[in-house]
Design goal:
Number of strands: 8
Strand order of the largest sheet: 5-6-7-8
Shape: globular
Radius of gyration: 15 Å
Strand content: 15-25%
Number of helices: 3
Largest sheet: 4 strands, antiparallel
Oligomer: single chain
Length: 130
Amino acid sequence: MRNPAWHTCPLGFPVAESDLFLRTEELARFARLLLQGGEWAGRPVIPADYVRRMPLETVPTADSPGGQFTHGYGLGVWLGGNGTYRMDGLYGQYAVIAPDLRAAVTVTAHSDHDEDLLTAVYEVLDRLRG
């Protein structure tokens, strides 16, 4: 990624929990990086231990509105059920990582119906599982 747009605070530090603006192919590369355990082209970019912990160290979200947001929240990722996890953005920006399938699905859409969009993605992944 070449100089992605990321909002900063008045002191110039990135607002790291949100507002990272990526093109579809950049978000897909980030998802692939997670799928590959934090390595890119054989080089560690994110510590592998941290990538492993992302979907494991979670807090419950059963009281959250919407079925796709009730599986828990890990280290910066939402759990999606069936061993999947995802990075969420506003209005239908998603990177869904399915380690068991060695697959990542990237969606950049403008959607006011996130629940329906995520349900469709998970249905496709479930069909791939057989």
